[in-house]
Amino acid sequence: MSEKNEINGSNSSSNNLYLDKPCIKKELYGNELFGFGSMQGWRKTNEDFSKYLMPFDNYLWKDWAFFSIFDGHNGIETAKNAANIIDKYLLESLNKVQSNIEYDQLNDIIKRTFIELNKHLREIVQDDSGSVC
């Protein structure tokens, strides 16, 4: 197959996953307290999503910040949906305890949050994508 498509100013190879040359446009996020960036690179599409909340909420967790990066695999749906809803799952779990929690409790809450998020994503994602956080 010798067909080539134009994507982000770069030609895509016959292998639909990769470009002939990398897309080096960067997306940068942050302020004076934090920063991170994203670059598509050799992949045909950028499958990564991120989310940050400063403060995490305006009540019990107002002194906390939330940062997440979701590395998409084989599509964008899982990473996109995870980025859109993980804070709601985590906040729901944190609000079941008071703001003065122990380290072990926090670890358990984070683990339970990811398990519940995974169950939910399996129900709503319609493609074969995946993600790591």
Map the helices and strands.
Layout: E1 5-7, E2 10-12, E3 18-30, E4 35-43, E5 49-53, E6 66-73, H1 77-94, H2 103-124, E7 130-132
Antiparallel strand pairs: 1-2, 3-4, 5-6, 6-7
Helix pairs in contact: 1-2
Q: Key terms for this structure?
A:
single chain, 133 residues, alpha+beta, three-stranded antiparallel sheet, 2 helices, 7 strands, 33% strand, flat, disordered N terminus
Detailed description of the structure:
This protein has 133 residues and is α+β, with helices and mostly antiparallel strands. The protein has two domains: 1-45, no CATH class; 47-133, no CATH class. 30% of the residues lie in helices and 33% in strands. The protein is built from two helices and seven strands, in the order ββββββααβ. A three-stranded antiparallel β-sheet has the order 5-6-7, covered by helices on one side. Strands 1-2 form a two-stranded antiparallel sheet.
